[in-house]
Amino acid sequence: MYERLDKGLERVIKVAHEIAREYEQEYVGTEHLLLAIAREREGLSGQVLAEVGASEEKTKAAVDRLIKNSLEDTWVFGRLPGTPHFRNVMAKAIQEARNFGSKEVSTEHLLIGLLLEKGSVGYEALKSLGLTPKLIRDKIRRLMAEGAVD
C-alpha cells in the first residue's frame, strides 16, 4: 500500500480543506479535491486541465452548478472529515499510481481517481467538462513521455 503522497498531492489536499471551509462545508468531498487541483495546477494534473481548457473558473462553475442547492451556513474549525467518495477517490488514486508504476501517489493519479468515482460531484463536474479517464490517462502518458513532469 502507498503511504507516501508526493508534496504536490499533500498541498492539493491541504487546499481542498481550505476550499471546503470557503464553501462553509463540514466535510471535504471530491468537489473540493477537484477545485484544489484546478486552483493549484499541481503536477501533471494541472497541465492536463490546462490542455483541455478546464480553467479554475470553468471548473468552479461546473462544481457550483452541481452543489448550489446543498450549500449550508456552517463554519467548522480544525480538520474536516472526508466523505466516502473522498476516501474512494484516494483508494482509486493509489491504484492508479500502481498502474502507472509510480512510487508516489501524485495529483495526476488523483485526477483519474476523481474520474473513476461515479456519482460524486467531482466526477460529474469533470464529465460536464468533457473529460474521461482514457483522455486523462493518454494525456498523462504523453506528458510523461515528453518529460513534462514538474
Q: If you had to describe this structure to a student in words, what would you say it looks like?
A:
The protein is mainly α and about 150 residues long. About 65% of the residues lie in helices and about 0% in strands. It is globular, with a radius of gyration of 14 Å.
Helices and strands in order:
Blueprint: H1 7-22, H2 30-40, H3 43-51, H4 56-67, H5 84-100, H6 107-116, H7 121-128, H8 133-145
Helix pairs in contact: 1-2, 2-4, 2-6, 2-7, 3-6, 3-8, 4-7, 5-6, 6-8
**Residues in β-strands, percent:** under 5%
Helix content: 55-70%
The value of Rg in angstroms is 14 Å
Order of helices and strands: HHHHHHHH
Q: Give unreliable regions as ranges.
A: 71-78
Alpha-carbon distance between the two ends: 24 Å
Largest sheet: none
Shape: globular
Number of helices: 8
What is the number of strand segments? 0
Q: What is the arithmetic mean of pLDDT?
A: 86
Summing up helix and strand content along with how strands pair, one would put the structural category as mainly alpha
